[in-house]
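Quick one before lunch.
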Amino acid sequence: MKPAIVTLGSHSALQIAKGAHDEGLHSIVVATPKQKSVYERFPFIDELIVIDNFADFPSLTDQLKKKHAIVIPHGSFVAYLGMEENLEMQLDYFGSKQVIVWEFDRLMQRKWIEEAGILVPKRFKVGEPIDRTVIVKTYGAAGGSGYFLARTQKDLEKNAVKIQNKEYLMQEYIIGVPMYVHYFYSPLTEKLEIMSIDRRYETNADGLGRLPIQHQDGVTEPSYTVVGNSSLVVRESLLVQFYDMGQKAVDYSKKHISKKGLFGPFCLEMVIDEQQRCFVIEISARIVAGTNLFIKGSPYSDLLYDEPMSTGRRIAREIRTAAEQKELHKVLHED
Ligand code: AMP
Ligand code: AMP
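Model of the adenosine monophosphate complex:
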């Protein structure tokens, strides 16, 4: 029997369901009553299951198992279901669950990127004197709205109340262009693909640049709430670094995180400075919402596939191919 795919109605569910349907797989979306009216509109969703709360998702386990459904995780899984529930989920799961644990913890994430040999912004330990502009990130600050910048020790003291009794990290603020590179690593072909690249529009950080400098004094700190994404193509010479960084993240995960390591879609969030150095500030070990721009593919996926290939469809293609080759085990989580 062909596998079905299932995901939660949020984040990148439309892309994932369309991709599955286009690949001939049965697509299931699980939505709450509030979102039902949106997901009903799209005929590529073969089945819509409505539950009161996303937290009730585990109650569907038996029903979904009978349909041979494979879970496709996205950004809302940990947010709405919680880490434990993700780890304990009894359904087939596309990806390695161990990587979520590393992704979730900022220090483990940093260890992963840094030890993999990828360039990261310099980190200042708590109490260590700063000698350049730093960004101070409190843990769990939604959309980066609790972050602030400091250039001197005095700036830090002025903002002390914002970090009082909170866990936070301080890192060098990189002046450059933020980019999100969307990768796909195939366990079947053992090849790394760049699917697309986006940049985010973050308010009010992107708005501040439109304000003449004489009006900026006294304006609030920048905040980084994502409100949109746009497509990017980069200088071709940067691709060498992009492939190299993605491969390093995969190789490290196979050695240090789990046997299968990081596979499927993932994203490196980076800022590129004037010397074209790429500083990675975050890794997302799953499909990111910026890929929603590319339902019909991107210039990069077009170079690899002569057909529209979104990241959602690429996931379904991997599952379909694995099923046809009787190698589904290669693309599913394993304890
Ligand atoms: P939502 O379903 O809009 O509440 O989003 C779920 C999660 O995905 C949140 O953590 C958002 O920050 C993130 N997210 C949603 N849309 C985007 C986007 N267009 N770009 C980047 N991240 C996003
Ligand atoms: P984060 O919560 O780490 O994803 O950061 C949110 C946003 O803050 C990013 O999308 C960047 O625009 C900005 N940012 C974070 N860290 C840095 C950094 N070290 N240098 C420059 N910008 C940063």
